[in-house]
Structure to design on (875 residues):
């Protein structure tokens, strides 16, 4: 028995380049950048002082039941806005016939941000200078005075999922995965599998995340994973460029509504594209490094192609993971060559992280939306800031300007810190 | 036709002990591992008791090639690594991690091609070790002793080890396990609170069924024994602050006197294996077959999902889905290993849901909750539950029920462990946040 075809019928975006799909797409095609000075907190003395923030955004402009979501963290707010857009685009706001126990959610969303002011204050108050350790009782004395329940509980990584379930009364299979930078690509892949098995009729899927907070920036700065190009924030995210010096943090959400083709057709929904293939692997190599030959990445692409029943010649565009770190971009290039051989050079491949920054868990879902738009408009989004190509990165990265092109099938890669790799294949219907 | 999947090894880790032997002995004896918290001074909190895992040396569970990486393992990661080691050995598997030479010997051959081995491990929100983090924060104090973010940005943060962040990424449980055992198949990290481990085991089941792997390491692990994580539990209002003097009786699952939960640390990894490849490698002593799985979401808008739907509608849909896939009726369930966290409203919703599916059968079969003995191990709890359910099928024995003098709604009360003919066991978990998951395990015909 062949499994049912799974299609995308709704999409939503909340990103540093805008809070709706068309604005973000127009920004990407015109090589705009969402990167600027960090103002979520005072990062002025940090090694990195900039990021791509979502600005002037309020989830309450999007949801039907704002009273259910009071006190949510940024990531949940992003998730709600993007999902509400996708829901409406799919026409589900006006569709009465949905069995809510067959409406599932699979997100790849991140954890919420700590209540830093009170957290740091509690830690310092709890510090025993003689023992050089935290005194649990002293810590509790301050924490119990300062911290609040909603602010703490909203940090749990299943909270975006929980709020989406309430907003849309989704009672079907419900998951959140958090495989670092691969999370939302994996979520879309697994949501596809749930529909293929017939365990739901409709799935809301995608991801939301922000790590633009004091310990997020600290953590990535300590790993020396971030660009330090403080004098040129908009030029800092430069995937595949020889002078790339790390990724740029972004934040936001991308959401899809997906369903079986049969279900979409039966309710008269507009079909935007098909999720034709999904591949997932682990590097099983090192905590700190990608496998130098891109073993897991290549295998993930091969599995997705096999799953889609497509050949190497069928891929028209690759949405790269393309973070702008030294390691990722050269190894991803190598892995694409391993998979596609001679054809690699003739497949356009770009990284929109050059404009949006890296949305971490949410990155893959935004890139999936962009693949659908590329198919719709037959346009390739560019890789911004690619003026000094790395000799090791010698593919067609659609440098610095979008262009027209035949795009019927896209392959989208996401690779997580720690070695979890995921690939989706998105296809015109 | 769907591939059959069996549990070939289990590795529970909880306050009852490391591995299935002490765990099984403990649940059969009805021993509670709940006691005063030792990981930190709990005297500033209302509830001061919990279920803690005994001290262990992580290096004993990690091959030489990966020992350096133990420095970047938060406790949650360590628990997963230990559980995976127990599970792999219990299943008689040769991996890079279980091979005494760490895969270095030229003759070394793994039981499975690494590309055919998946890994799905649920995780919680891992908190930074407060002493480690604060040891750096104190370097960024201003003249008043308060935190100065300018000082932190320019010099304070350098007191954190460069790899600091990697200790706390939830996917690192799976990543360390995949590296240690060389699992190169699909790998995921599900973060749905208490439902995480069983959702992960369910995902492994699906991955094997659709032929993307032949073997999966799956389950979950979490430690709530950190003041920050712990206080987050207290802020939910779900901890029982009234049993600090009689910790063994603190958690009373499905009892009219249910007064709250206690936190635990622990988890469990189980080995799911395609029956055909298991038999192909000579396996003939699997614990159980996994025959049904279901997942659902509870929606309670009135309580903003901080409480389950009181009728347990999501319990009904996930359990029904699992029974449907198993092809069995309610009266074929012989044992229920439930969530039973000991928080009255959650236990009641669970019982209401179970009753709606199982009807009178719920009164006739034992309903066990391990939370009474090990506490709430968060994302890891379901791993312990599945391990114990699998062992119960192998041993044809029901674990003890404790702390249930006044059972809810006609359920059986406290009881000693007993022999029983067990064919199907239903395991059910729900996460705070509303994710529900059910699984049916079936005895192996012997």
């Amino acid at each position: 028995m062949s499994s049912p075809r799974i299609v995308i019928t709704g999409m939503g975006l909340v990103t540093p380049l805008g809070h709706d799909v068309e604005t973000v797409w127009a920004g990407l095609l015109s090589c705009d950048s969402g990167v600027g000075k960090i103002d979520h907190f005072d990062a002025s003395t940090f090694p990195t002082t900039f990021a791509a923030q979502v600005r002037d955004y309020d989830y309450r402009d999007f949801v039907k039941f704002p009273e259910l979501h009071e006190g949510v963290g940024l990531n949940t707010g992003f998730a709600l806005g993007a999902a509400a857009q996708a829901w409406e685009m799919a026409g589900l706001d006006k569709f009465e016939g949905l069995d809510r126990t067959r409406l599932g959610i699979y997100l790849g969303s991140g954890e919420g941000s700590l209540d830093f002011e009170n957290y740091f204050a509690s830690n310092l108050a709890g510090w025993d200078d003689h023992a050089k350790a935290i005194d649990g009782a002293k810590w509790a004395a301050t924490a119990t005075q300062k911290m609040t329940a909603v602010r703490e509980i909203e940090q749990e990584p299943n909270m975006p999922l929980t709020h989406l379930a309430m907003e849309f009364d989704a009672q079907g299979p419900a998951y959140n995965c958090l495989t670092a930078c691969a999370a939302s690509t994996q979520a879309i892949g697994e949501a596809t599998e749930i529909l293929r098995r017939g365990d739901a009729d409709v799935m809301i899927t995608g991801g939301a995340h922000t790590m633009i907070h004091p310990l997020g920036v600290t953590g990535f700065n300590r790993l020396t994973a971030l660009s330090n190009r403080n004098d040129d924030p908009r030029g800092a995210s430069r995937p595949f460029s020889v002078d790339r010096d790390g990724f740029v943090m972004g934040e936001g959400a991308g959401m899809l509504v997906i369903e079986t083709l049969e279900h979409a057709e039966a309710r008269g929904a507009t079909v935007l594209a098909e999720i034709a293939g999904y591949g997932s692997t682990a590097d099983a190599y090192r905590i700190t490094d990608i496998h130098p030959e891109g073993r897991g990445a290549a295998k993930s692409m091969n599995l997705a192609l096999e799953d889609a029943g497509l050949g190497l010649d069928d891929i028209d565009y690759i949405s790269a993971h393309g973070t702008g770190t030294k390691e990722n971009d050269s190894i991803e290039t190598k892995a694409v060559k391993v998979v596609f051989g001679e054809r690699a050079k003739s497949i356009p491949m770009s990284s929109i992280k050059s404009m949006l920054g890296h949305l971490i868990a949410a990155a893959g879902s935004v890139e999936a939306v962009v693949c659908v738009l590329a198919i719709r408009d037959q346009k390739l989004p560019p890789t911004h800031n690619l003026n000094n190509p790395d000799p090791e990165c010698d593919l067609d990265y659609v440098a610095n300007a979008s262009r027209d092109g035949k795009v019927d099938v896209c392959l989208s890669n996401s690779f997580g810190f720690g070695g979890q790799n995921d690939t989706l294949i998105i296809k015109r219907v | 036709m769907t591939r059959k999947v069996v549990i070939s090894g289990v590795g529970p880790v909880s306050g009852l002990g490391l591995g299935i032997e002490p765990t099984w002995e403990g649940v059969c004896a009805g021993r509670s591992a709940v006691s005063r918290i030792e990981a930190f001074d709990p005297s500033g909190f209302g509830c001061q008791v919990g279920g803690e895992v005994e001290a262990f040396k992580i290096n004993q569970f990690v091959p030489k090639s990966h020992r350096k990486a133990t420095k970047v393992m938060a406790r949650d990661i360590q628990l997963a690594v230990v559980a995976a080691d127990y599970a792999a050995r219990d299943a008689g598997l040769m991996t890079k991690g279980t091979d005494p030479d760490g895969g270095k010997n030229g003759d070394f051959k793994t039981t499975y091609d690494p590309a055919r081995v998946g890994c799905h491990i649920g995780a919680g929100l891992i908190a930074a070790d407060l002493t480690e983090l604060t040891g750096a924060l104190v370097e960024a104090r201003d003249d008043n002793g308060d935190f100065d973010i300018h000082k932190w940005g320019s010099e304070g943060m350098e007191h954190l080890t460069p790899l600091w962040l990697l200790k706390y990424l939830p996917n690192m449980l799976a990543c360390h396990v995949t590296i240690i055992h060389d699992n190169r198949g699909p790998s995921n990290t599900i973060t749905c609170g208490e439902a995480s481990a069983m959702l992960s085991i369910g995902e492994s089941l699906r991955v094997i069924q659709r032929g993307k792997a032949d073997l999966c390491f799956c389950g979950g692990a979490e430690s709530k024994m950190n003041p920050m994580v712990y206080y987050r539990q207290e802020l939910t209002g779900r901890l029982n602050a009234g049993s600090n003097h009689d910790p063994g009786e603190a958690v009373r699952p499905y009892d009219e006197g249910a007064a709250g939960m206690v936190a635990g640390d622990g988890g469990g990894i189980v080995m799911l294996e395609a029956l055909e490849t298991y038999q192909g490698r000579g396996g003939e002593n699997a614990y159980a077959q996994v025959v049904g799985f279901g997942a659902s979401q509870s929606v309670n808008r009135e309580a903003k999902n901080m409480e389950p739907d009181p009728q347990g509608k999501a319990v009904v849909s996930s359990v029904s889905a699992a029974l449907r896939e198993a092809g069995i009726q309610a009266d074929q369930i012989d044992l229920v290993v439930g969530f039973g966290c000991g928080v009255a409203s959650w236990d009641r919703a669970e019982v209401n849901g179970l009753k709606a599916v199982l009807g009178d059968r719920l009164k006739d079969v034992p309903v066990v909750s391990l939370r009474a003995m090990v506490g709430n191990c968060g994302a890891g709890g379901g791993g312990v539950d599945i391990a114990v359910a699998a062992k119960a099928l192998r041993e044809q024995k029901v674990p003890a029920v404790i702390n249930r003098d006044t059972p809810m709604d006609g359920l059986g009360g406290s009881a000693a462990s007993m022999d029983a003919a067990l064919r199907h066991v239903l395991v059910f978990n729900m996460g705070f946040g509303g994710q529900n998951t059910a699984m049916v395990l079936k005895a192996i015909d012997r």
Summary: Chain B touches chain A through 95 residues (CB under 8 Å). Chain B is about 30% helix and 20% strand. Chain B has a mean pLDDT of 97.
